[in-house]
Amino acid sequence: MASQRSGDKTKLMLAESLRNLMRKKPLDKIKIHEIVDACGVNRQTFYYHFQDIYALVEWMYQHDAVELIERNNKAFLQGEVGTRDDWEEVIKALFNYIEEHRNEILSVINSRAMVYFSNFVYEGLRTSIKRVVDLQSKDLNIDEYYKNFISNFYAIAFGGMVQSWLETNGAARMSSQELIHLLNITVSGNIEAALGRAANEKK
What we know:
Blueprint: H1 2-22, H2 32-39, H3 43-49, H4 53-77, H5 86-100, H6 102-108, H7 114-136, H8 144-167, H9 176-187, H10 190-201
Helix pairs in contact: 1-2, 1-4, 1-6, 4-7, 5-7, 5-9, 7-8
């Protein structure tokens, strides 16, 4: 257990070193020696944990996805989510992450590692939206298959919009607040309505 904690600490240290470099230049321009030099470890330590920089990026976004999901779950448990159009709080949490890590994400765009960020967006959205679906369907007779389907549908739709928004440059890109507002107009109440229709089909 102590060895695992030590390994996780080293991985977090390497990830933080990479994040700092990603704020300054594109991911494809970053070298392993820059990552290890910045956090005071050697290349052997890096390769003990990761095959290459892309493996570190993958681990970093998997770690961030878990943290994002845990924050959303905490909001559910504390009652901060669950009393209104809950998906909006989920998408806001994602945009808060994007604003916090904007330069790092820009470093990943157009690199081989973009798929790992896309997976992070999808998994964070899918898991959190599933909590919304479970909450809104708790008194309805709905198959788990359909609840998973609708969660996947909205995760893919929202994730695609987020990625398109990130890849739009300059004045053509709307603000995150405007995008959230337009999504709200477009899909507000749709999850609840779809769940209601699915429940009616079971009668």
